[in-house]
């Protein structure tokens, strides 16, 4: 039990929360970074290797394209259907190889990225599929290369949808980062368990909830703001909203 | 300039196989405005998409500006496409870019540097009459303005050929007229060869030098408009001069006379009355300017059956007029 009347209580609380918040942001930031770096290309490939897609025939082979599409699709489905807690434990050997340990915020980045990558890849896929196929047709007619079409047509045109997808992705990363904290990771989840649960400190518990809530709200707000800003057309905006709804519906943490 | 030889294309397989193009051959001379008309599903879009190989034909040859496109590898094909502009029915503009940005996109593709891009985009936007809208986004434009951006983008890389798939089908008649006017300006001032697809005969009438009729994937008629209108039984010519349905006229022979070029001002009716003592009744008439020439068609009713009017009809034909017997009393 924690003594709330002790003169050290408030400074201690502050310090614990600061550390926890810092660790959470650290985990979330890097997990998000890897998620975008890996999830974005996977999402693009998922669309591209579809029939009639930009990368239908990688290295001139239609069969390879089909196989690549199936494999990516399978991996993404698998990644999304394994419960996080099981994924986290199952990949401990892998995490050890990559980070050297499976405990602590740095180690947590590995499972957090792994759970978010397939999710974000789907969001990217959905957003790009919403881009009018006429646009890549027009780009082809101008003699644009595939790479240019990805860079200058797909990504900018799908940006509003992808940003909303990113907002939902970051929310679930934060959620899962708390779960990591419960097991071994540090961060706000750890604060909630060690102080709020094990030492019955309601203040810690409430503070953690508020901080997580605020972080999520800020990130969502920023993402939505930019999504709106980049959605140039009224169609674009309603498109962004539909994708937003789809994203929420598909989210592993629910609406 | 554009030359398709025995081009075939089908979609699907087995029972669901549709033949979109069936052994199509077509020649578009340099500097021509060539229209392809046909009903929905005739294969018009497929045809125009094979010209820049957006659709790869199953067989046949496609030559543009002397280059065989079907033989090109990926990179060479991209370069060839840069010389073939294309305009789309639904504009297909990038919503994330301004008008200027959309035109510059075409220049980015061919690797023009940023300063030169700005200059050339501004120049082309002036040409299409959109200089003032350079910093607007497509969502802020009307349909006609969007299509002007589409045309500007297609012209930016200075192609020698312009393809247009139903570029005016989503526009009202007034806007259609102004876009067609722009096509003609481009054709005349920049010397572009234009191949356009349309289902509106009016478009052909307004700007085309030549036309082809596509039906179920086959070219049914094909030629210069001035020649087509004096071709007996030409469906394109009939559609160019819609005289309506032929009513029941007991005891009357109905003939259509087509005038073009030199014989447009013949006093035919007076002549029939004078030389053959026939009481001619006028059933319909249409005068059009086709490919810059006055041309017209008159539908006349002659009392009596075809045999009794044979001498009069032969006389008209002898003067070089196209006379078709389209209905009338049985002999
Ligand atoms: N990608 C495709 N897959 C399957 N069938 C197709 C495809 N594209 C065209 N077709 C078929 O080929 C035929 C010709 O189509 P096309 O689009 O060329 O017609 P169109 O003359 O342009 O018609 P519209 O005036 O309606 O645009 C149609 O029967 C159509 O169903
Ligand atoms: Mg069509």
UniProtKB/TrEMBL annotation, chain A:
It is found in: Cell membrane. Keywords: Cell membrane, Membrane, Transmembrane, Transmembrane helix, Transport. The chain crosses the membrane at residues 25-47, 67-92, 98-121, 161-183, 203-223. The keyword Oxidoreductase does not apply. Its main location: membrane. It holds the Pfam family BPD_transp_1. The keyword Cell membrane applies. It comes from the Bacteria. GO terms for cellular component: plasma membrane. Residues 21-221 form the ABC transmembrane type-1 domain. It is a multi-pass membrane protein. InterPro entries: AA_ABC_Transporter_Permease, MetI-like, MetI-like_sf. GO terms for biological process: D-methionine transmembrane transport. Belongs to the binding-protein-dependent transport system permease family. This is D-methionine transport system permease protein. It comes from Glaciihabitans tibetensis.
TrEMBL record, chain B:
One of its GO terms (cellular component) is plasma membrane. Pfam families: ABC_tran, NIL. Residues 2-241 form the ABC transporter domain. One of its GO terms (molecular function) is ATP hydrolysis activity. The keyword Glycoprotein does not apply. The keyword Nucleotide-binding applies. One of its GO terms (biological process) is amino acid transport. Keywords: Amino-acid transport, ATP-binding, Cell membrane, Membrane, Nucleotide-binding, Translocase, Transport. InterPro entries: AAA+_ATPase, ABC_transporter-like_ATP-bd, ABC_transporter-like_CS, ACT-like_dom_sf, MetN_ABC, MetN_ABC_transporter-like, NIL_domain, P-loop_NTPase. Belongs to the ABC transporter superfamily. Part of the ABC transporter FtsEX involved in cellular division. Has ATPase activity. Homodimer. Forms a membrane-associated complex with FtsX. This is D-methionine transport system ATP-binding protein.
């Amino acid at each position: 039990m924690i003594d709330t009347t002790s003169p050290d209580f408030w400074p201690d609380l502050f310090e614990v929360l600061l550390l926890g918040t810092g660790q959470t942001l650290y985990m979330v930031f890097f997990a998000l970074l890897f998620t975008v770096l890996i999830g974005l290309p996977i999402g693009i490939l998922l669309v591209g290797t579809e029939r009639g897609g930009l990368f239908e025939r990688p290295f001139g082979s239609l069969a390879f394209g089909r196989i690549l599409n199936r494999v990516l699709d399978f991996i993404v489905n698998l990644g999304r259907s394994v419960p996080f807690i099981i994924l986290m434990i199952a990949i401990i050997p892998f995490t050890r190889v990559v980070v050297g340990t499976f405990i602590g915020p740095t180690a947590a980045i590995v499972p957090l990225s792994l759970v978010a990558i397939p999710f974000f890849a789907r969001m990217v896929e959905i957003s790009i599929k919403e881009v009018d196929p006429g646009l890549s047709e027009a780009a082809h007619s101008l003699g644009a290369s595939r790479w240019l079409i990805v860079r200058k047509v797909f990504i900018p045109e799908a940006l509003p949808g992808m940003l909303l997808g990113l907002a939902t992705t970051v929310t679930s990363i934060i959620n899962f980062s708390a779960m990591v904290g419960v097991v071994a990771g540090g961060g706000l989840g750890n604060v909630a368990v060690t102080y709020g649960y094990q030492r019955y400190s309601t203040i810690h518990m409430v503070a953690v909830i508020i901080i997580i809530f605020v972080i999520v709200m800020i990130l969502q707000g920023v993402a939505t703001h930019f999504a709106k800003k980049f959605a140039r057309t009224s169609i674009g905006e309603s498109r962004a909203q539909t994708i937003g709804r789809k994203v929420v519906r598909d989210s592993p943490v629910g609406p | 300039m554009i030359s398709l030889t025995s081009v075939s294309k089908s979609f699907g397989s087995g029972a669901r196989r549709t033949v979109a193009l069936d052994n199509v051959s077509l020649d578009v001379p340099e500097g021509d405005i060539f229209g392809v008309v046909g009903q929905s599903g005739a294969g018009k879009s497929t045809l125009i998409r094979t010209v820049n190989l957006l659709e790869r034909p199953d067989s046949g040859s496609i030559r543009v500006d002397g280059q065989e496109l079907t033989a090109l590898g990926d990179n060479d094909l991209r370069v060839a496409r840069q010389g073939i502009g294309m305009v789309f029915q639904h504009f297909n503009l990038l919503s994330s870019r301004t008008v200027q940005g959309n035109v510059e996109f075409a220049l980015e593709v061919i690797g023009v540097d940023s300063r030169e891009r700005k200059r050339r985009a501004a120049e082309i936007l002036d040409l299409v009459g959109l200089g003032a809208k350079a910093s607007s986004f497509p969502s802020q434009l009307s349909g006609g303005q969007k299509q002007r951006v589409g045309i500007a983008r297609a012209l930016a890389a200075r192609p020698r050929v312009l393809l247009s798939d139903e570029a005016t089908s989503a526009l009202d008649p007034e806007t259609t007229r102004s876009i067609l006017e722009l096509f003609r300006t481009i054709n005349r001032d920049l010397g572009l060869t234009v191949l356009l697809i349309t289902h509106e005969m009016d478009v052909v009438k307004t700007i085309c030098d030549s036309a082809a009729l596509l039906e179920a994937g086959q070219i049914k008629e094909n030629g210069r408009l001035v020649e087509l209108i004096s071709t007996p039984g030409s469906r394109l010519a009939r559609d160019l001069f819609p005289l309506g349905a032929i009513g029941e006229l007991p005891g009357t022979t109905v003939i259509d006379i087509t005038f073009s070029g030199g014989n447009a001002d013949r006093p035919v009716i007076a002549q029939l009355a004078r030389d053959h003592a026939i009481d001619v009744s006028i059933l319909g008439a249409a005068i059009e300017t086709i490919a810059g020439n006055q041309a017209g068609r008159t539908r006349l009713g002659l009392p009596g059956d075809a045999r009794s009017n044979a001498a009069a009809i032969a006389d008209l034909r002898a003067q070089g007029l196209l006379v078709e017997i389209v209905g009338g009393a049985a002999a």
